[in-house]
Amino acid sequence: MQQVINVFLIGISIGSIYALMSLALVLVWRSTRVVNFAQAGQAIVTTYIAWEVVNRSGSFLMAFILAVAIGGLIGGLVESGMMRTLFKHASDGPVAAVAPVIATLGLLGVIRALVGLIWTNEGKRFESPVSTAGFVIGDTTLPFSRLNLLIIFTAAFVMIVFSIVFQRTNLGLALRAAAYNPEIARLSGVKVSMTRTIGWVFAGAAGAVAGILLSPNDSLTPYSLDVLFVFGFVAAVIGGLESLVGAVVGGLVLGVGLSFITFYLGTSLVFPTAFIVLVVVLLVRPSGLFGVKGARSA
Amino acid sequence: MTLKVERLVVEHGAIRAIDGISFEVAEGSLAAVIGSNGAGKTTLLRTLSGLKDAKLGKVSWMGRDITGMKPEDLVRRGLSHVSEGKSVIPELTVKENLALGGLWRNNKSELAQSIEEVVELFPRLGERMSQRADTLSGGERQMLAIGRAHVSKPSLLLLDEPSLGLAPLVVEQIFQTISMLCRDRGITVLLVEQNALGALAIADTGIIVNLGTVVAQGDAKELIDDPALRSAYLGY
Fold this sequence. Notes:
Chain A has eleven helices and four strands; from the N terminus they run ααααβββααααβααα. By secondary structure, chain A is mainly alpha-helical.
């Protein structure tokens, strides 16, 4: 029983990181109808910056705040500097659907190469701000550590901030309205081009948090967040790609599910399971657990 | 003259949806644009509110050229457009839909007051404030759409077929409210309708369009009584 609870908590911990990446992807999808392949790339930049700050100042908190701020900035710059031009020039036909996605894929390549140039492709060790040794109860040491606890609390904090912004503020109302129906939003006076950029800013910040939470006690390379993108995407699809709540639930469900697979069936089955889940969700319930029935057109 | 449309031409790809329309709507009056499906009525409204670009021609409002301005900027100049088909956001609550119309003013007390006014206009909405808009009936949704536009405090209200698909009793109530918004609140209204008789009955002037051109315009009562127009365009 204790083992089950443990596996569950570890799953919540890793799942909350997936949930943040999933949130980032959903925020971008909702605001501009693009799956942003560069999301993990943007996060890798901020994670390297955080690593630098931790190395130089030793302050994880400062690294965190800086990473989130720069993550938001990068998101905003990518949307306003690159995506907006693309949307304008490829506004019709099949190109309009494909060009922006391909562009994010290209951006991912560029970012990885630049990060490799600056920091080399060699793995860096990202020190954890708190102990990674498991909690000890009686004479048993649990796999669940202070780092896991920190991850859960940080992710929960970010999600609470997001839910307050989206549900309780004028900005949140404008963002939701623009996501659901840009035309009515514009007719009501919402500057939709601005809400699009803000969606990317929030996504960049959420992705930065995911990157900085995944990396401690692990090796950091320009490719180390690719896995995060894959799981974040699967989580977003489970949640229906449209729903912020769905993104979080999708991330947690996936994290817990994969945690059980890892402990009881072995690591080698983690990836196949994630892809099987992806395919099954797309076949059985393409709108996801929280999606709206009948796909919304852009 | 407050709203002035001059030789407007709008195209959908190769199709000329509006082919040189000109008319004027006097301040504080109610003008009805009548025509059958495909006459260009919706395109006309979408061009006036900035959703669609004009190919040629000019639109001016209160003496200012507003051709090509964006909808979000036009709202700030007092132009509100209730688009075709119960233009509400179903995923949001009634209150959120209403608040949306007042976001740009960024003034809490004014917003609360505007919402209060909408509840006076449509008491049924008052009972449903925290419900999602997709739980409303068709008539209530149309009321909500008009209510949202009202919260934007328009001086010019563009309405696209508010009677579409509604029961006769509800249509009558909606038309009465529209008429009241014009007579009592001094809002200039441009009402696009297929329901010719109902719309002309509350309008001051009528503009009858067919295949993207104006075929007749003038006093609403005279248009109703014109036997030639009746059989050709008004369909009763």
